Every structure is written in structure tokens, then in C-alpha cells.
């Protein structure tokens, strides 16, 4: 393990969540505006996919190959499923991650500043096998991609 | 009968003009030609995988049920018996036919004898290497688990045997069930300067850093060869996650492409992946990732005499799978000209213990590591009247023995036993020793469980495991077989979608009710709570049961009624 990695772990161990977020913000990685972005209550409370989309102002977004979901096909742990969303679209201003079969579908929404690399990762909770949908707003228009992530009971491996 | 006795019998028989089994005499004559065939090209890779710690020769019956679904119907590896022989143009009745299929298994096992064993494998490796200077020996993993001695030494017997055999590079799966610290200890101390552990798809759970080198570059006769590791992607799901709490796995296809590109950029003229994906996953990955010359695969224990050629946007990739339990040595000869592969020859050589003298050094090592445990391992628990084997999609007779013992000893109406693909074979009339039993059960989480489950929960479990086996998208498969079930009858349509494959569930002739509770015995729980709860190791329960029974009749296999797979070449007629 190299020096850099060790330092990162030490920072996290010593820091605790809030301090680290502050440190990252100070380093310009996360804008304070993003960290404390206004809570879109309606979108996060939505119980159907249509309602969640509507609340984000994204009705029937088009499928796009420029929106990529990087995630394991089978979740190692349904309680923390790492999902990376990448947008190749210019002027990406928003990335949202939705889980179709979660009781509340919108799991995360990121508002991005103009100089931000449009790549975000979130660890989301999934109760069962579901499609995970990433919605991207770029240059005023909405796009999406979808991927099934399986949540299984485990055991019985060859 | 050991090899010397055997040769003596042969000599006596020949002197007396006795008729030898024609198949075996031909096999003997052909063996030298086969094992010592000249090499091809200038880069050779030798490959073993999934030996499951079988240091001594064993019998291993190949499956009679290995169904393919969706686009995989009738494609390698989903072929059994006569359909397998037709597909690969293997002559029926030959030694190879016996090694690759279950046809006439009991009779042919008597004729051709045991297979594998590290002392015999070591001899073969030396012979093959003699014709191929500079050849690399690659180990696809599942090497440290599967025997009593491996379990009791924390895999140390296999770690030392791998070094003695001359393994150059390995990747991982069951190794991880000794815990991440143990794996790191071996990789960093025992293997330092000898064996490289590679895995592009094992990362730290916090920052996603590499835990092992994604690939290593080795020069073979002046040709730079990159070997990329692909560990079993679903280790934290199929096995206890607490064993590898700080690591994350997955297929990581994007990272595989990036790793291939990095290896090429670093000057690799040949890129091979040493994979523990399982064959269906390897075939899909080969179709989507460009720049891999060959994937040397394992995990699904498919002994494939010939590789499958897979087209992808960058060209073609060979996909092999080298069987299990030490039965085979894969030999891939590549011709590399102007920094690219221009031709290949592949052979999957069966390791017939009677046709290969034991390597004295390896033999002495094996006897030494086994000696402290010999008395325990050699205990005869019972005599089996029938053939005991495990491999097959739905059940095996050794699994049925375990299920019957679980139900008897725990007074349970239903029993579950995991669909592991390892586990050796006992011939009819042979004693069942503690060693044989440990071959089926030696894991680091062997606890017996007894649970009250609702009919609905039972259905959910069966559907979940069945989808891991028969999902039409290989990336959603985990590479084990169906959970073995005792006491409960059901029908299964592998071609149906998840939730609709398992039907007609009955217990003692009565339909299973969703809301009713049933007493279910099992073993090998993956949850951390189960570890805390403890429980008797399953081999102790089964040993107790067998000792009391003394003679065991051929178990009556509880098999599901299959639907939707008539004529499937993965099913023996």
C-alpha cells in the first residue's frame, strides 16, 4: 500500500464524516452548495417512477448511450450497493439515481457546477432485485440509462 | 492397488497370455504419444484449476446433467454423455471418453483407475515442460480448499504443494474462505519471489484500490506475455462476506478492458486472462472485451477438450475450461510472430495416475503432510453399496447421503445441502472413509443449521438459487449447482423466468403451504450470525450417522421433475 493510500485512510479514521466533507469541500472536490443542496422533498418522497420523474421535471427522458452505470450485476450487500453514474454529455447539470423497486425510488440527486466532472458514486440500499435508473440533465434536456442489479440470498457457490 | 502392483499384474497377465482390457492396453500405448507430443509455436502455457486440494489420486464422475438455457442450449460446456463425445469428436469407449464423461462410469473407473494426484501431476508437468522450455504454469484457484488436510493446515499443505509443483501465477476463489488476512499472508510471505497472485477484480471496499496486482508480465522465450487475474466475482455472495469484509469483487468488465489496454501499452505481445469466472461468464466477457488472446477458465469444473472461439470487436478470443479435482492439465501452445498470436494448439490432458509414475519428491511431501492426520482420515465410516458422487445440476448420490443424514439426525422434514461442484467419487463396494466425507464437506463454515421456514420462504430460496444457475444472462449466474433438497418434491422448469421455475412443491405427498412452517436442516450458512451461533460441523453429524448405519445402500436420489428441457444436450438420454 502506498503512502498516498495510507494517508487517505488515516484522514478518514481521524476525521469522521462531517470533517471529511468539510475537507473535501475545502479542497474544491465538493462544492458547499452541492453538499447542502436544497432538498427536493417531493422527488425523494415519490412512490412511483412517474411521480419521481415529474417532481424532477424529467418526464419520459430518452435513453442515451452517453449515460453509463458502473455497478456490479449482483450486489455483494443489498444494504450498501455502490453505483457509479457517468455522463458523457456536455453541460451536465444534474445526475440522479433511482431504484425502481425501492419504496422511495429516488436514492440520490446531484446538482453539478459547470466545472465539475460529471461522475458521481453513491452507495444505495436495495431491498430486492431491481432496475437502477440514472437520469441526467444536460443542457436543459433529460436523458437516462438503466441496469438491473440483482439482490440475492447468497450461499451455495461452486 | 498401487501403481507398482498394477504394473505387476499387467506384466503377469501379458506373460500368461491373458487378455488385457482392450481399452486400457490401447490407452497405455497411446499415453506416451499423447503426453509427450511435441510442442507447437514458441509460447506455452500450462493450466490447472479447481483441484480442490486433492493431493492424492481420486475418482471423479463428470455430470450427467449440465443444462444450458437461452442461447447456451447445446453449446459448450452444456453437453453431457454421448452428446459431449459427438460435439468434441471424442471416440466412445476410450480413456479420454472416460475422463470427459460419465458414460459407463463404474465399469471404466475399474479399467482406467484413479485420476489426478499431485505426485502424478508433477510428473506430467515435468514431461510437458521438457518439451516446452520457458512454459508458464498457471493455477486458476480453488487450490487450498477441499480436503481435511487443507482445512486443518489452513491451506498450508496446498500452498507448499503449489510451490513444489512450480506454479508461476495464480488467482483466487475458495482461498478467500480462510479469510483475507490469511490470503495476504500467503501471497506476501510464502509466495514471495515464487508465485504471483493476480486479480484485476479484487479492490479495497473503501477506496477501490487494487488488493493484488491486476496482471503480471512474464517473458517467455523472448515474448512478453501478460497474465491478468480474474478472481471469482461473487465470492462475497456465494461464500461468507465476513471472510473478505474489506474487499469488493464483481466482474468489473470496464476495468478488465482497461487492464488489457494497460498490458498492451506496457508491451505485451500476448494477453491471457487466468479466470475464475465460470465458463458461461468467460464466454460473455470474451464477446465484449477486446484484446485478450485467451481466457484460461475454471470455477464451473467443465473439462473441455477444445477451446471455444469467441468473436469480439477486437478479433477473436479462445476460451478454455480445465475441469476439476486435479483430473486435467491444460496445455496451450501459441505461435507468436511479429508480436501477435498467429496460431495455437490446445490439449486438455487427463492425468491418469496409472499411466504416470509418481514424482518421488512430491510423493514424499504428500505423505509427510498427511501423516499426522492419517489415522483420522483413514477411518472407515461405512461401506457404500452404490456409487457415491456429487457433480450434476440437481443432486448427487453423496449429497443425498448428506441430506438423509441431516434429516435423520436433526429430525427434520426437509434438508438443504449446497450445490457445490467439488467432491470426489466413491465406487460401489468401497469403504466410505472420513477422508471421502471431508472431500465433500471440508469448509471453514461447516455449521449444521435447523430452521423453521415458511413454505413461502422455502420457495423463495429455491427460486433464488435456481436463478443463480439458470439466468439466461451469464453475468447473473454464480456458477454453482442447484441446492440439493431432501424430503421435498418439486418440479423445475429451468427455461421459465425467476419466480416461476419451481412448481408442484410437496412434503410427504401434501402440497407445501405458503403460510405453514416446516423444519428445515442445512449446513454451510454464509451469514455472520450463523458463525456466532456456531453449530456442529456437518462431517461430524454425517460421520455419526454413517458409523451407525455400517452399510449404506445406494441412496435414492430426490430429483425434481424437469420441464421444458426435453432433448436438451445437457441431459443424458
Question: Explain this structure to me?
Answer:
Chain B: Residues 397-523 form the 5'-Nucleotidase C-terminal domain. The complex is a heterodimer of chains A (158) and B (573). With 158 residues, chain A is α+β, with helices and mostly antiparallel strands. Chain A folds into two domains: 1-36, no CATH class; 39-149, Sandwich (Immunoglobulin-like). Chain A contains five helices and eight strands. Chain B folds into three domains: 1-35, no CATH class; 36-58 and 114-367, Purple Acid Phosphatase, chain A, domain 2 (4-Layer Sandwich); 378-562, 5'-Nucleotidase, C-terminal domain (5'-nucleotidase,  domain 2, Alpha-Beta Complex). The two termini of chain B are 34 Å apart. In chain B, strand 3 (169-170), helix 9 (180-190) and strand 4 form a beta-alpha-beta unit. The model of chain B is unreliable at 6-19 (pLDDT under 50).
What is the count of structural domains of chain A? 2
**Main β-sheet of chain A, in a few words?**
5 strands, mixed
As for the CATH topology of the largest domain in chain A, it is Immunoglobulin-like
Average pLDDT score of chain A: 81
Query: What is the strand content of chain A?
Result: 25-35%
| Unreliably modeled segments of chain B | 6-19
What's the CATH architecture name of the largest domain in chain B?
4-Layer Sandwich
Tell me the quaternary state: heterodimer
Protein name (chain A): Thiosulfate oxidation carrier protein SoxY
Domain Ig-like SoxY (chain A): 54-156
Organism (chain A): Azospirillum oleiclasticum
Pfam family, one (chain A): SoxY
Give me a quick take on this structure.
The complex is a heterodimer of chains A (158) and B (573). Chain A has five helices and eight strands. With 158 residues, chain A is of the alpha+beta class.
